[in-house]
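We modelled the chain as a single entity of 139 amino acids. Its sequence is:
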Amino acid sequence: MALVYTPETVTSSASTSFEEFLDILAGLKLSPASTHIDLDRRRLEVYGNSVKLSNREYELLAYLAGHADEIVSREELLESVWYGEGLESQTRTIDAHIRRLRAKLPEADLISTLRGQGYRFNSTPSVRVSNTRVHTLAA
């Protein structure tokens, strides 16, 4: 669930009174996340239903979600997701994987193509990305 607040009026005062704060809280609405990307369990859920992803689709989605709202170049994806498997930057494999991911996501514009620059995962309140993996050290 995400809290969504869209103010009806903009106040010029930097300080908010307690009553105004209570009014803001009363105006908050809970909005369920339509998409949940669980990086720990390698799962994608759309409207509560598990969506099957290939390993490479998952790795691509996880990398983009981990760099949300940043432009990720094709070269960076080839190096980080395809581990420099000898693919050239002009290869269409990234485009094909992005196209398959978009078909599985409820919002087509969740992953943007920026011509000549790369791709961007657009964070929105309807998408929740969780990554709570705990690392332990052995003594």
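As a brief sanity check on the tokenised model: Strands lie at 2-4, 29-31, 35-38, 43-46, 49-51, 111-114, 118-121, 127-130. The chain has two domains: 2-31, 36-130.
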